[in-house]
Amino acid sequence: MNATGLDVFDKTLHTTNLWLEQIMADLGPDRQVAWHALGAVLHTLRDRLPLGLVVHLGAELPMLVRGLYYDQWHPSDKPLKERSGEEFLKHVQERLAGVRPVNATTATQSVFGVLDHYVNPDQIGKVRDALPADVRRMWPASGTTGRHAAA
Q: Of 26, 132, 140, 149, which cross-links 83 as Cys (Cβ 3.0–4.6 Å)?
């Protein structure tokens, strides 16, 4: 695992690729679509969380994914007050414009599954608890399978 010559970069590339592979298992074998889906869901999630949770979740993400997560973030006008799952999915779908058609619900559940698998379960529990019930229902039920493998 020495693609860049810097261990920190190699580790984040490796971890990010694991995340993308898991998303591709749900959305199909297109890495670009998986990357866009990851960003669409993370941005939609981020924009609905209180500032403290945004930062704590960001700290749990692999370095490369963390950059995607914070890209174009303007915390002064957040969190958004929309409460329905339908509004959440609408924002995910809008952020998926420009890639082949992807079901927003499938993309959301896939990314939530990746977060559930790799991020500290205590942090995921706090994030889930901060979401409206409609959005929480889209998240995998376990909340305890995290491997805490951020890089």
A: 132
How many domains, the chain? Answer: 1
Q: In 112-146, which positions are buried (b, 16+ CB within 10 angstroms) versus exposed (e)?
A: bbbbbbbbbbebbebbbebbeeebeebbbeeeeeb
Q: Which amino acid is at 8?
A: V
| 8-state DSSP, 48 | T
| Exposure string for 31-46, b = 16+ CB within 10 A, e = fewer | eebbbbbbbbbbbbbb
pLDDT confidence of residue 142: 60
pLDDT of residue 117: 95
Domain holding 29: CATH number? 1.10.490.110
pLDDT per residue as tens digits for the range 69-124 = 999 998 887 788 877 999 999 999 999 998 899 999 999 999 999 999 999 999 99
The dihedral over CA atoms of 125, 117, 83, 96, expressed in degrees to the nearest 10, equals: 160
Nearest to 74 by CA among 88, 54, 60, 95: 54
The dihedral sign for the CA sequence 78, 82, 84, 90: negative
Please report whether residue 95 resides in a domain: yes
